[in-house]
Design goal:
The protein is mainly α. It is built from eight helices and two strands, in the order ααααααβαβα.
C-alpha cells in the first residue's frame, strides 16, 4: 500500500515572489546604509571596532610566507610577460589589420552614418517580425542584435530579407565565422 501523505503536494515557500531583494527593498537598504555612514557616532563606533585589525598580508614578507614568495617571484624575471620588449611585441601584434575587429579600416561604431538614418525603425521592424526571439537558438528575454546575413559593408543592403534577430552570443559566433572566411579569402 502506498503512503499517500508522502506524495502530498507541498506549498512552495517563495511562490509568486520575484526574489528576496526587490528593487525597492534594495534601494531602501542602500539608502539606510548611506545614512548610517553620515552619522559621526556610527563612523566612530565602526572605527573603534576595527582598530588593531590587520590586513591578511600585513607584516608578511617573502622570507616569512611561501604565498608571498611565490607571487613575487612570478611577477619578476621568471615571467616573460613582464619584460618590456615582450609587452610591446604583443601589443603591436594586435594592432591594425591584425586586430580581430578589423574591418577594412572603416569605423565599427554604430551610428546613423553606418546603417542609414532609418536604422532604428528597421531594427524595430525586424524585432517585431521575429517576435523578439533569437532565430538561431530560440531564446527570448535577453539582449538581442539585428544581424545582416550578407554584411552591410559588402552589400549596403538593409532590406528585411537580409536581416535577422540574434542573441548576443549567437551573433558573435556568426560574426567571428564571417571574419575568418573574409580573412582566408584575402590570404
Amino acid at each position: 500500500m502506498i503512503n499517500e501523505n508522502k506524495y502530498k503536494k507541498r506549498e512552495v515557500w517563495n511562490k509568486g515572489k520575484t526574489g528576496t531583494w526587490t528593487k525597492k527593498r534594495l534601494e531602501n537598504f542602500r539608502k539606510k546604509i548611506k545614512d548610517l555612514w553620515k552619522n559621526p557616532d556610527y563612523r566612530n563606533k565602526q572605527s573603534e571596532a576595527h582598530k588593531g585589525n590587520k590586513g591578511w598580508m600585513e607584516g608578511l614578507t617573502k622570507e616569512t610566507d611561501e604565498r608571498v614568495k611565490k607571487h613575487s617571484d612570478r611577477m619578476k624575471k621568471n615571467n616573460p610577460m613582464f619584460n618590456k620588449k615582450t609587452r610591446e611585441k604583443v601589443s603591436n601584434s594586435n594592432k591594425g589589420e591584425n586586430n580581430y575587429n578589423w574591418i577594412d579600416g572603416r569605423s565599427y561604431k554604430k551610428s546613423p552614418l553606418r546603417y542609414g538614418d532609418d536604422w532604428e525603425a528597421i531594427r524595430y521592424l525586424i524585432y517585431l517580425r521575429d517576435k523578439f526571439k533569437c532565430q538561431e537558438c530560440g531564446i527570448k528575454g535577453i539582449s538581442l542584435d539585428v544581424h545582416h546575413k550578407v554584411p552591410f559593408l559588402i552589400s549596403f543592403d538593409n532590406s528585411l530579407n537580409n536581416l535577422i534577430t540574434l542573441c548576443r552570443s549567437c551573433h558573435m559566433k556568426i560574426e567571428r565565422g564571417l571574419q575568418n572566411v573574409i580573412r582566408k579569402q584575402k590570404a
